[in-house]
Automatic annotation (TrEMBL):
Record-linked PANTHER family: 3-HYDROXYISOBUTYRATE DEHYDROGENASE-LIKE 1, MITOCHONDRIAL-RELATED
Active site per database record: 172
3-hydroxyisobutyrate dehydrogenase-like NAD-binding domain location: 166-272
GO molecular function terms attached to this record: NAD binding; NADP binding; oxidoreductase activity
Name under which the protein is recorded: 3-hydroxyisobutyrate dehydrogenase
Domain 6-phosphogluconate dehydrogenase NADP-binding: from-to ranges: 4-163
Organism encoding this protein: Hydrocarboniphaga daqingensis
Key words, A-Z: NAD, Oxidoreductase
SUPFAM superfamilies attached to this UniProt entry: 6-phosphogluconate dehydrogenase C-terminal domain-like, NAD(P)-binding Rossmann-fold domains
Length: 284
């Protein structure tokens, strides 16, 4: 089996992960729909290849793409990772996807001798660049976990083995609920405080002192306030619009999982269609 590793998805988070993978020692092969992103990694020593060539040459491939549709387009078809992959190879899904799809991909991978695990991440682009990401892993095989851990350690500060395949994405979806609910809470709290003549600084001072406001919440509301002051609604939409779209996708994935399990999430159901407005500071 080849000693090469592969990585697909060189976006905001994937690119710094791939940069850190260059430290691992094995030859790194990369792919992205953006040739500019590929060229950046190639300049640092990575090899740019097609997904089919990557599957044929790499014993490990990490995927960090947007959603279920993107993952499926890479896994399936005559030139897909499953058709072209090596028996005994590993595919790690870092994307936030639906659990039902993840489990189906796992079954299809097993059928062709490939191990597919879920390893979604938390910590954002800054965490990827600093090597402080948290990985939430669903994996049934201790030997596979042992093979993957040194690879993930190039960008991780914490690796949590959540359980069997599917448990990693379950943990990520649940963690996302807390994150987006916290953003919603400080969004509405700051709107009320502002209407009553209080500054955000005072709200953060008290919330930080009593542990209610986390550093992540504080960074979100301060960054949003500064951007609104300097560029107005247009700047907020340009910067936070993609985060809102991603949030809605993630929350909808959690709701799909909850529906399949007959679990009611009324607050999340109310939050999902409003998360874009929250990111952009719109009180609708």
């Amino acid at each position: 089996m080849s000693d090469s590793i592969g990585f697909i998805g060189l976006g905001n988070i994937g690119r710094p992960i791939a940069r850190r993978l260059l430290q691992y020692g094995d030859a790194l092969r990369v792919y992205d729909v953006s040739t500019t992103a590929c060229d950046e990694l190639a300049a640092l020593g990575a090899l740019t290849v097609s997904p089919a060539e990557m599957a044929a040459r790499c014993h490990y491939i990490g995927l960090c793409v947007r959603d279920d549709t993107d993952v499926e387009s890479l896994l399936y078809g005559a030139d897909g990772l499953l058709a072209c992959g090596q028996a005994g190879g590993i595919i790690a899904i870092h994307s936030t996807v639906t659990q039902a799809a993840l489990l189906r991909w796992h079954r299809d991978a097993v059928a062709v001798g490939i191990t597919l695990v879920d390893a979604p991440i938390s910590g954002g682009a800054s965490g990827a660049a600093a090597g402080t990401l948290t990985y939430m892993v669903g994996c049934d095989d201790a030997a596979v976990l042992a093979r993957c851990t040194p690879i993930w350690n190039t960008s991780a500060a914490t690796i949590v083995h959540a359980g069997s395949v599917g448990a990693g994405i379950a943990l990520k979806l649940a963690n996302n609920l807390m994150t987006y609910a916290a953003f919603a809470a400080i969004h509405e709290a700051s709107a009320l405080a502002d209407a009553m003549g209080l500054s955000i600084d005072k709200l953060i001072e008290v919330g930080s002192a009593n542990g209610v406001v986390t550093p992540q919440m504080q960074a979100f509301i301060r960054n949003r306030s500064q951007l609104a002051a300097s560029g107005g609604q247009a700047a907020l939409h340009q910067h936070f619009g993609p985060f809102g779209a991603l949030g809605q996708k993630d929350l909808n994935a959690a709701l799909a999982c909850a529906e399949a399990l007959h679990v009611k999430l009324p607050a999340t159901s109310a939050l999902a269609p409003r998360i874009s407005a929250i990111f952009e500071g719109r009180n609708e």
